[in-house]
Write a structure and sequence with these properties.
single chain; 197 residues; mainly beta; Immunoglobulin-like; 2 domains; 12 strands; globular
Length: 197
């Protein structure tokens, strides 16, 4: 389930266990910009070993080249044999922000982020405010436990400190990093807000 980035593209990387790019695709959905839909692209790959750990990463950018959304899954690549594909059943985002609202103007040097998370691994949830030049004007980390009982997500609340000199549109991002042999961001979601001193 994807929504193309502001440029109308969805990018896909297949990353090997030595962090090399095995395959990179740029899917053109400019005619569907702003829409959300299912895709099932076919990725071709070649590996020299019989089996290799890898990660499939789908991501999009906003109009300023900032990472807007990212999702990934770790896989095993086999040089021969039949594919064993297990359908993913969870289509809901791992990070849901209840406050602030998209486009909201905030001031005072820090603001609460209230939301729900279904952590994708045991690494901290990293929250960042990134301005239009790509500079991080605020960041905070929090450890969110896995949901329990009948809950699909765990509630969290954290205060995000920031520093700006004037009214500054930012991208509020929530992400987690890898805890496996392949480094990098494994999940990211974002929303636009405006910060004032």
């Amino acid at each position: 389930m994807i929504t193309p980035g502001d440029d109308g593209y969805v990018y896909i990387d297949l990353i090997g266990e030595d962090n090399r790019i095995i395959t990179r695709e740029q899917l053109d959905y400019r005619r569907l910009t702003g829409k959300t839909f299912l895709i099932a692209p076919l990725l071709e790959f070649k590996i020299s070993a019989a089996v290799e750990a890898a990660r499939v990463v789908l991501y999009t950018y906003d109009r300023f080249g900032r990472l807007k959304a990212l999702t990934s899954v770790d896989v095993l690549l086999l040089s021969v044999g039949d594919a064993e594909i297990y359908p993913f059943i969870e289509l809901q985002s791992p990070y849901l922000v209840r406050y602030p609202n998209k486009g909201q103007v905030l001031q005072g040097g820090s603001f609460p982020v209230i939301g729900l998370a279904r952590p994708v691994n045991n690494t901290p949830l990293i929250l960042e405010a990134i301005d239009e030049t790509g500079e991080r004007v605020g960041t905070v980390e929090t450890q969110v436990p896995q949901p329990s009982g009948d809950l699909s997500h765990t509630p969290f609340e954290v205060s995000l400190p920031y520093t700006v000199s004037g009214q500054t549109p930012v991208l509020l991002t929530l992400r987690q990093e890898s805890n496996s042999r392949i480094p990098g961001t494994v999940s990211l979601t974002s929303m636009e807000i405006v910060l004032e001193p």
